[in-house]
Each structure stands twice: as C-alpha cells, then as structure tokens.
Amino acid sequence: MVEAAEPIDLSDPTQGPSIAPDQIGEPLVVLTGVDKYFGDLHVLQHIDLTVHKGEVVVVLGPSGSGKSTLCRAINRLETIQSGTITIDGSELPSEGKALANLRADVGMVFQSFNLFAHKTILENVTLGPIKVRKKSTAEAKQRGMELLKRVGVDSQASKYPAQLSGGQQQRVAIARALAMDPKVILFDEPTSALDPEMVNEVLDVMVSLAKQGMTMIVVTHEMGFARKAANRVVFMADGQIVEEADPETFFTAAKSHRAKDFLSKILTH
C-alpha cells in the first residue's frame, strides 16, 4: 500500500527507488513480436519487451515513435495485428468478460484524467471496485478514502472533478487506478496536460508508488523522473525499441545515434 507522497528532489540522485537486480520479481508484462498498424502506417514494429514485477520502466522517445500506442496496447485499448501480450502469464483475450477481468489487473492513468464529471471524487474512485471487483459500498468507500488521503486529496472527496485543479484530478486518477489493486499501472504522459506548477505534485505520488514496489510502465517527457525513478529506460523511435538501459547509462552513455540525437535536443531545453 502506497504511503503518503513526500516531496522529492528529482535532481538528487540519492532519492527515488533503487531496486537491486535480485529484488526484481518474475516477468509480469511480456510483449513478443507485437505489430500494430494504423492503415498503412506501421506504428509498432515487432516489439519485444519484458517488464518484471516491482520494476519501473520509463518509455521515452520523440513524438510519433509509438510510445502511447505501446502503452494502450498493453491493456488492449488498441488491438494488435500480430504477436502476443501476456499479463502475469495470461495472454490478453480479444474481447468479452475475460478481457474485462484481465484489464482490471492493469491500471491506467491517462493524459486527460478521464474522470466522470457527474460523479464525486470518491464515487470516481469507488465505482470500479464496486462494479468490477464486487466489493461492498462500505468497503470500497473506506478503501477509497484511504487512497485519496495517500495521494493528498481526501479533503476533496465530496467535490466534483471540475472543482479540482488539474494536478488534483490526476492524483484522483492515480487513486482510482490503485483502488482496483492492479498488478501493474500504465501511465500515458500523465503530466503533459498539466500546468508546470502542478507537475511535481503528480510526480511525487508516482515516485512514492515506485518506492513502494508498484510495477509501473510510464510514457513521459519528464527526464528528471526518468533519470531518478526508473529501473530501466526504453527508448523508442519510428515504432521500434531502439535502445534499453538503466537510466544512468542511457543519459550519460547512450549508444544509438537516434537516442543521442534525441537527448541532445531535449536536455538542452
């Protein structure tokens, strides 16, 4: 269970999760030979990727590289044309109840929050556990309030999304994902729609989750988070995984010309 988020200095290399290789668990998310097309556009090209239990994998790359499509394919928000994706040993079903059950194990935090505007903050967090996990209303509310407190927005429980700031809404979205007790949480550019002053409050919560051992796949442009909170950086370009490395190696000694070019542009702005 994640503790209350503590402010973290993303420029301080002593902060953030540090998981030794022997602490990484069994493979949890496995993509093998995954291909995805949008018409004639080959957006994911024979992707092989394994994410282990307890690992934080940050996916970086230029716009249009396939990062978000990769993230969305993992819980079948995007269908794939070939290859396999397994979650904890079970292959993603194509549709139906089996897909809904497996998808419940995969939390998703979107760029645009995707909260239900007509429901209160607490109702947003408890809806999934009640409808999908079949928890009692009382149990779901108790758990929901615990999670809202842990992400620092419990005082907003009776309000509606429009009454909260973007940063608060995104923290609610994280609490909603946690309420399902997922095996892995996918973050698809979770801070890109936020005003700059709200970014760190969301990153603080994400770092706290990482330090608690939550398996996370994070598509982001936040280089500070990638460098200090990831166990591994996956760099994508043109629909392919070009390079994988631990953060220190990637940011100081990237091997591919494509990654070096990306870093030279993004780290000088």
From TrEMBL:
The keyword Transport applies. Its main location: membrane. Keywords: Amino-acid transport, ATP-binding, Cell membrane, Membrane, Nucleotide-binding, Transport. It is a peripheral membrane protein. SUPFAM superfamilies: P-loop containing nucleoside triphosphate hydrolases (SSF52540). Its EC number is 7.4.2.1. The keyword Flavoprotein does not apply. Residues 1-21 are annotated as: Disordered. It is found in: Cell membrane. GO terms for cellular component: plasma membrane. GO terms for molecular function: ATP binding; ATP hydrolysis activity; ATPase-coupled polar amino acid-transporter activity. It catalyses: a polar amino acid(out) + ATP + H2O = a polar amino acid(in) + ADP + phosphate + H(+). Belongs to the ABC transporter superfamily. This is ABC-type polar-amino-acid transporter. The gene is gluA.
